[in-house]
Structure formats: structure tokens, C-alpha cells
Design a protein that fits this description.
heterodimer; A: alpha/beta; six-stranded mixed beta sheet; 32% helix; globular; B: mainly alpha; ABC transporter involved in vitamin B12 uptake, BtuC; 14 helices
Amino acid sequence: MSTEITPDAILELKGISMSFPGVKALNDVSIAFLPGEVHALVGENGAGKSTMMKILSGVYQATEGSLVFKGEPVLFKNPQQAQTAGISIIFQEFSLIKNFTVIENVFLNREHTHPLGFLDRKKERQVALDLLKEIGFELDVDARIEDLTVVQQQVVEIVKALSVTASVLIMDEPSAVLTDKELKRLFEIIRTLKNRGVTVIYISHMLEEVFEIADRVTVMKDGQVVGTKNTCDTDKPNLIRMMVGREITAYYPERTSTRGKKLLEVKNLTKKKALENIAFDLHEGEVLGIAGLADSGRNTMVHCILGIDSADSCDLQVEGKPAAMRSIHDAIAGRIGFISEDRKNFGIFGPMTVKDNITIVDLHSFLRLGFIRRKKEKTATTDQILQLRIKVSNMFQRADTLSGGNQQKMLLSRWLLKRPRIFIICEPTRGIDVGAKMEIYRIMRDLVSAGNGIIMISSELPEVIGVSDRIMVMKSGRVAGIIDQASERASEEQIMSMAVGHRFSITEEEK
Amino acid sequence: MSSPPKTRRILKGLIAPEGLVWIILAALIVVSIFASDLFLRPNNLQNVFLVQPVGRGLAALGQAMIVIAGGIDLSVGSMISLLTSLAAGIFQQHPGLSPILIVLLLVALGAAMGAINGFIVVYMRVAPFMATLAMMLVYQGMALFYAKRTMGGVPKGFRVIADGDILGIPLPIILFICVIVFCWLLLGKTRFGKHLYAVGADSTVSALSGINVKRTRFLAYLLGGILFSLSAIFLTARMGGGGPKVGVGYELDSITAIVIGGVALSGGAGNVFGAFGGVLIIGVFYNLMNLLSMNSFLQTLLKGLVLILAVAFTFKKKK
């Protein structure tokens, strides 16, 4: 428990505890937030960050302890009350209605009306434009949300929060979906907010961001506060130590260069307006990292290789034999496993059990006379759960109740049953906490050591550098270069300069 | 840089389902003119454009309110049957009753039936499709129990609603336009209207924004029930009676009409005018089939196909 005395705090949690049936999600949490500071909140998944956010924003009510806001004890019964008081939250999944316009979203349920009860769009427009001006961002306020870029959507969220004169703004992993350029923009906005005296509570998995934007950082672990530090008084290893409670000497597993035969060869991969003449290969025993900006065509390329998307031309050789990927079935038959970056929508079957999620791709191997042999299925599932150390209460648990890291392990084991030679994994550790990240890296390393190959798309440069044997950098649908890390580690600057080209031209996407 | 946002939006509006409706309607009218000489007869035109759209239009407006808020109501038809039966039955027993009283009674009953549907869907948490499918049986059973067959004998004072006119303009048209304008203002220009769209488009986001999702959905059904009762009132006045089969087919007609008119079955999108355009389209289409004296079973079959096409088309649009 923090013993700091903070008389000038704008928002203070005092001994907050939160119990759910069977679980104590928060235990005696005390944090003080100062006016006009950017306060980062870090911790592994399940550390209690999101529960705390939900208490601050009125979604949950604490079972014990008190909230002090502007010197007064408060109790928020619903999000609306917190918002009216001046605490706004931007959730990880945006809370915007896709087919509504910017104005309609900003003033949803706080519409300005004429005395007769009709909506006062003119006034709403003025307020929205004023707020946009204040944070220095231009946006068509009549555009529909679905037509906006992710960062623009985030700006709408911020404007929505500011429209109720928020004095505290909570941002839940705002960077998860942003490119570096967009992130810079967001940081500028956060600094503007800070200068206006707004307290920003910034939740993130990315420690780099914490050091760039935050004044102070609070580390949480297992529902408790480990400590609060000034960012200038601490460093990354220190924070990681606080988060996991142990020293991480080797954050990334050691590379074991055992490069073997060619597993996959791609040539002449071209798709109109998306990809141009892509060529590369993947060998046994290596992780090929693919870096590049979000619009560099990395995902399209992978989708073409897998047969999910169709290319105009593509020469593929799998283990030395020419292969045509007309659909994902061909890819699976070619022993290629694929894990999408979007676990929720393209990965797990949320309401189904962990067992069903693991065996679904390989079901036919459990058949006898057309019936599934439950015993064999269960044995295989148990093996996988033990091997990858998936944390479950039992194999019949609903998949969507697992933490992100365990969901990812579950997806890995789904493909492991098929024994693929080639894995294509997109953003393997997105939204996954530090401990689980390390385990995923270890599993990936084990896979390649056993003679398989992995193609990994990642937006996190430290991850690309730490995990990959070779790094392919993409830029505007082309291969900008391939870096072999056997002799020397690549640097983030090196990759970035390849990804953005020599001319650092900022071209906004206008479609 | 493409065209400025404003022109782009107008262009988009024309290609949007709501805009497309009028193009389809125009095309269908042209086809009808060529396909049958009878189409342009004043009697027929009056029937297709002034009489038919009122009853069906009121039902479709009610359906639109409910669907926009993320629900659906399959009980419209039997609700209308029950209400017209009750109206005719009451007039048979008490011919002297004031028509205004009956109108008020029917509106209150419609509101109550809508409220029951809403209660089952929102507070008992039965899926809208199942809840209203079941209530379709309940209301149909009540109608058949109350009135074995079609009854006449509705007095002139009540029939004015369908027959009367003010300065030569038919009274039902005036009333109908008033209802349309009311719905348009409600949906497009008020907080409540925006909230109907919001809960239909995304109930989680709505709840996070502090909108009372349950109450909004419930009110949508209640409002729908009132509009259905207006449809029943008009039909009773026009036919001078009512019966347990009067509303047959209205559930699918109303759904087909609004889907053609650009109301998304998934909720949160569409508007009053598009829905009305959809009503005219199916009106002209049904009329054309009649004018060509098409076999009635074949007509039923085609109605089903049109519904599927309409839903399939809008589904593709969303993807």
C-alpha cells in the first residue's frame, strides 16, 4: 500500500478492493493521480488494471474502499455519472457507433436540443469543431465513423470525452491498433491535453510508450499496486522486474542458428495496387520476421500465400515442390499453419470449449466410422495443455474466458496437432502480458529448433529484432530489404528507415 | 483529392438503399404501364397510390421503428386482425358508440399489445423473432376466438376516416401524411429517435453512453403497436368491418417493404421515406400481378422470392 501523502491529488483511490464470486480482482489498491499529469498504468493481463478502470469509470462499484475526486468522496453507479463528474474513459474496443457520424457519436445521449425538443445540430457542430481546434486536429465532423482511420476514430473518442469537460481521461491501450506515425500524433494530442490541465491515465503493454509519454508510472500485479515511480527515476528492466516479480535476464530466447533446407519459396508475388514482385524464402529452423508499416502490404502478402486472398501472379514452392494456393484448404494440406492477428474474430471460437478449439482443425484424425472418439480427443487435448502450459481450470472451459496469452497458446496447439512445417503467425503477442509473451517466444523457438519454419508479422520492432533470425522489411507492397541477423543484430532505426524509405514523405491515406 | 465531402455525401445518398428505392419504383411503374393497359386507369392508380399504401404504410412504419431499434415484429398481421375484429364486434353490439371512443380504444389496445411484445422481448429476454412469432399465434387465436368470421356494420361516422375528404383531398391521405411527418421528425430530429438508431446499431456502445437500452427498445415496440393500431383503424373504416383474417400477410409485407426501403434488418439504419418507398414498390408489384391475373398461389410464391431477394441484396451491401 502506498503511504505517499498527496493532498493535491485530483483523483485518489483509497484501499479499493473488488471481489467477484471466487476471485479477488483488486486488493487494497491505493493510487493518487495528480492534476495535469500523464500517469501510465502497467501490469500483466489479470493484474487488475481493467477492473480498476471499470471502477473509476462507474462500470463496477468497489466492494471496499473509497474514491476521492476533487477532494470529495464519490460513488459512481454507472458510466454516465462518472462522465458527468468529469472522468471519461476510452475503451480498448472503441465505443463508437459505426454508421453514425462524428457529431452524432460525440453527443450520443448528451444531445443538444432546441426548446421544442428537436436536435440542435448547429450548436453541436460548433462545439465539436471548437474542441477539434483545441487539440489541433482536422476532421470532417459529418463523416461516418466507418469511413475514418483508426487514429481519426480515436480523436473522435477524445473529442467525445472532452465534450463533457473531462478532467480525467482514461485511455485503455490506445496504441494497440496504431502505426508509429499515428502514435506520434496521439502523443501530441495527449501533450496538448496535459497542457490544458487534463489528467491522462494511460494503460499500455508497451513500456517504450510509457517512457515517452508518461510522467509517472504505477505497476500493478495480482490485483495489487507494486509501486509508483517517476518515469525519470526508473528504467525498463526495473519496470519489468516489478511487473513479473522476477529478473528477466533473457527476455527473448537465444537464437539457435540451425538453418536447414528451404521450406518455402515465394517468387513473382504480384497483386494489382497491393503487391509488386515479392520474392523471399523460408528455411527450416528459422524465424523470418516481417516488418513494415500497417499499409505496407504485409498482411495482403500473407493472405495471398495462404490462398485467402488471390494474387495476380505467384510462384510458390513448398519443400521444393511447386504449389498453388487456391484456398486456405490447399495451404493446410501443404502443412502451413496460420494464426491471425485478430484472435477474437479470426482465431478462437469464443463460446466453444478449449478442447473443441484445439481439435477443430484436426478433427478427422479422431474419427472412427464417422464418430468422434472422445477419449482420443481428450488425451490429445490434455497433452497440448500440458505441453504448452495453457492455464485452464479444465478443458471444457469456454475459450473466451481465457486470458489473451492462453488463447494464443490454445491457437498454437490447434495447429500443432496438424504438425505443420510452416507457421505463419501475425502479431504473436498482441495484447499479451510480459510473462506469457516470453512463453510464446519460447514455444516459437522450440518449433523452429525442431526443424520447422516460422513467418512472423509483427508491428513491435523490439520483438522483430529479438525473435527473428532474418528480417524482411516491406514498404508499399514491395520488399524493401532482408536483414540477416546471423552476424549482427539489426537496429530499430535500420528497420524503420527501410520501412519508410529514404524520403520521409508523409502521405495521408485519402480514399 | 476527390470531390468535396458534401457532394460526395449526396452522391452516396443516391446510391444508398434509400435513394435506390425511387429508381426501382420508377422502373417498376414503367414496366407496369407497358405490361397492362389497366394500370393507368384512374381507379387503379387511386387504389395503388392512395388507398393501399395507407394501411400497409402504417404497418410498415411501425415495423420500421421496431427494426431500426434492433427488433422485429411478426405479430403485426394478427394484431391488426384482432383489432379490426374487435372494432367491428363492438360496433355490432353497440352501434351508437362514439367513433372517437373506438379510435381511442383501438390505439390504447394497440399500445398495450405492443407493450406486451416489448415486455417479452426486453424484460423476459426472449429473442424478438421467437417472441413475436409466438405472440402472432396468441393474437391470431384471440381474433379467431372472438370473431369466427368477417363482420360488417361499421357506422358511417367511423368510415369517414377512410372515405372523407377535406377540400377534395382524401382524409386518410392527410392523416397518413401527418403520421409520416411525425415519424420522420421523431426518428431524425429528436433525441429519442437517435437513441432508437443507436440501440439498434450497437447496444453495448449505447449502454456505455448511458442510454437506457431496455427502455428504448421497449418504447419502440410500444410505438410500433400504436402505428399498427392506426393501420387497423384505417382498414376497419375502409372495409366497414373487420375479421380474423384481415391482417394476414401484413407481417411479411411490412418487412419486405422496409427492407426494400433500406432499413437494415440488423438494426440501426434506414429512414421513414425509404420505408414508404418500399411500401409503394410492393404495392405496384402486387397490383401488377393482379392486373396480369396471375394465379394467386404463384403470387404467394413470388412474394416469398421478392422477400429473399430484398434481404439478400441488403445483406451484400453491408458486407
